Amino acid sequence: MSWKRTAAPEPGSAPVPSHAPVSLGEIKELAGVGRPTVSNWRRRFSREVVGGPGDSRLPFPDPLTGAGSESKPLFDAAEIADWLDLRTVPDAEPDEGGHLETYGDRFRRALRLRGLVALKHRLGSAETLISQALAVIAMSAEGKHWITEALPAELLAEYEAADPDVVRAAHELMDEIGAPGWAADALLGLDDEGLEIARRLESDLVMDITPRGVVALVAALIGPNEGGPDQRSTISLCAGLGELLLGMGGGPYEGLRGHGELVAVEPDPLLRKLLRYRLLSYEAGAADVCSSPSDLDTLRAWNQAPVEPHDFSTADLVLADPPYVSGERERDAEGPLWWALEAVRRLRPEGRAYVVVPTWTLTRTSGTGPTSMRTATISTRDSLLDRGCVEAIVQLPRRIHPFRTGAEFALLVLRPPSSEPRSVLLVDADRIAQRAGGKAGTWIEQVVGLTRPGVVPEPGEERPKRDDAYDPQDAQRVNVRTSGPGREQLLDNRSVLPAHRLAAPETRVDHFEETLTARRAVAVALPRLRDWVGDMNISRRDTHTPIRYRKLDVLLKAGQLKLLNGHRVKTEHIGEAGLPVVGREEMLGELPVGARCIAPEDLAAYPSAKVTDLGDVLLLAEHGVRCLVDTVGGCVLLSPVQGLRITAYREHVRDVTRGGPGHSTELWMRPHSLARLLQAPRNQHRGSGSLVRRVSVRDMDLPQLAPEEIAELEAILIEAERLRAEVRRQLEALDRLAERVSAGVADGELALRRQ
Fold first, then answer.
1. What whole-number distance in Å separates Cα of residue 409 and Cα of residue 414?
2. How do beta strands 626-629 and 617-620 pair?
3. Which H or E run contains 347?
4. Does residue 699 sit in the same domain as residue 651?
5. Which residue ranges are recorded for the region named Disordered (predicted)?
């Protein structure tokens, strides 16, 4: 929603704007231009230059008489704003009404913002200013049409006690934007322009607002709910400033009249008062605001209406966005997921609830040791799943919150409990949004399309015939409990975040044909390798015996793999001699392994630091998955690098060293095979995290292959790595030759002549 100028108000409808004179420097700052630009405007559009016969250009306003000085003239702010309206901002995009932003628009916004900041300092806090201004807006919108007894208790008193400058500023804001509700949103920081107001006022109210992308998604999932016999009642828990509730109005908060019975619950007294004012500014004052969910069970005459007292304990739609940051109140009974339980309890038989939660509530798992604890968050999540209350989990796009950019969020779509076994739809909206270029309308439309019945099949059903119906890496249905051998279930004490769960073969890719093409390309590029690539016995796998997969978490718990965590080492202990260290730089190829080392005596200060063995796979799971095979051993891992050790590999190496067969038939996995399988696309897409995309190691999976097939894959990968190393040495030699010849010629010490 963009700001727009409206026709001048009728006499007496609003106070006349009054601003202090502005200097040339202030014009520059308020219009968002450079000082030379203002000087050029004044010189090129002076009365001596423009205004002649046939010249329709308006001259730059004259300085005020008796104000300022010749060296620092002062100008009337209103005259400057009107003159700047004639100049459109370069490259400005038209708003919904086709209006192009002008420097006058910028000037007025900045001038008003400066006035609001001054008022904030005079009144003592941003909350006092916002509360008084909202009281004025609410009374101007609808409050004056209500009888005094029906108004919120504090509204009339705050309206009458409002500072006169606050009253003037509130009326100017409504006059500029064109609607009381939109003016309230701008003051609260709920639109693009309002965010700048909130920042300058240093208001904390916007820190926990529901992002507009989430509001639009919930409104799209709810669908039309205005008028008619199918109108649904709504309860908004943790309503905040009413973002989700007012978002159901359709469009940019068009209002909630005709949307059935509405009630909001907000525990915070300040937010509760501001929410009442905001509802009145949208002429939705009939919606009640309570302080606790228990108030919904109390018999009362809602809205003081002349009807028999009744409660509002259940509704067709329940909304909630509890304001929790990472890890907050994880062990408390009334954590973020408590509101999800409360939402389910408030649902009518065919109702739906939409609850926004931080993603850490979906990724927490209980430990396996005797001292492990099941936190309230884990227990509540398992209870919701076990009772069949979770219909869908939508992982929201990263950095969707304008202020909590380091936090990730998910949307739970909940339904009433059921004794029948049900599946849960997992949707990775972050992956969809990245593919759509972040365009809100595009990714929201695709997510809503995936939630329609029949688009994503139930577990065990065949996919839709159209290949482009959906991508299994975007959405899948997963059973809460297993319904067949080898099938995945959500109640397995692992993360239920869609990014950690969704893994599927690459769609629309014929691996057999792609492999044949790659093999032909190698034979053409490296003719001497034709025999080697031709001897590879590659064929299509029998589709009647599909491959099964096992999570690394299962393999780690079974002892088949051992996880080595990286350690943090002080910079002063890193040198050029000792044991090689492997950190992020080595994994990314920015430094060769061995360029950084740590002396054994310095390593003694870190008893928990891990040293690798021959055959360990080094892993960096940030912004994708990168793996290296340690072919020597003896490296120290630096965080965030991790290591995976195949526990049976050490005995295999020892047996081979002694001249034995190596028990190849018993070795379930080998290092190079493990490294390559971990880097497969099905594992690369499991990342989560808003600022740094990290892949959950325990949620990666590996195919269960016969030891003979693993041995064949290992042989191919080892030979390919040897050939790659040989080619790298050749390239390095050629690069060195070209570098020395050109350097010698440049310094005048080499002479070249054709043989």
1. 16
2. antiparallel
3. strand 347-358
4. yes
5. 1-22, 52-71, 453-489
344 neighbors 377 (Cβ within 8 angstroms): no
275 vs 271: CA distance, rounded Å: 6
Give CA 295 to chain center in angstroms.
34
Q: What is the DSSP letter of 209?
A: P
Residues 454 and 420 reside in one and the same domain: yes
User: Residue ranges of the chain with pLDDT lower than 70?
Assistant: 1-19, 51-52, 54, 95-97, 143-149, 191-196, 226-230, 249-260, 300-310, 325-327, 367-374, 438, 464-469, 483-487, 504-508, 661-666, 689-691, 755
Identify the bridge partners of residue 288 per DSSP, sorted by sequence position: 263
The answer as to whether 64 is a domain residue is yes
Q: What angle do CA 37, 38, 39 make, to 5 degrees?
A: 90
696 φ, ψ to 5°? -75, 115
For tokens 């008022």, what's the residue?
119
pLDDT digits (tens, 9 = 90+) for 337-369: 899 999 999 999 999 999 999 988 998 887 644
What does the pLDDT read at residue 494? 83
Chain-centre distance for alpha carbon 79? 44
Long-range contacts of 674-681 (CB under 8 A, 24+ apart): 674/617, 674/627, 674/644, 674/646, 674/702, 675/617, 675/627, 675/628, 675/629, 676/627, 676/713, 676/717, 677/702, 677/703, 678/617, 678/619, 678/625, 678/627, 678/644, 678/702, 679/625, 679/626, 679/627, 681/506
- What is the tally of structural domains in the chain? 4
**Residue 196 amino acid letter:** E
The residues, any chain, with a CB within 8 Å of residue 68's CB and separated by 6 or more, are: 21, 23, 74
Residue 562, beta-bridge partner list: 645
- Domain shared by 535 and 562, yes or no: no
Domain co-membership, 109 together with 26: yes
Domain range for 540:
504-545
Instruction: Name the nearest CA neighbour of 459 among 440, 448, 475, 446.
Output: 475
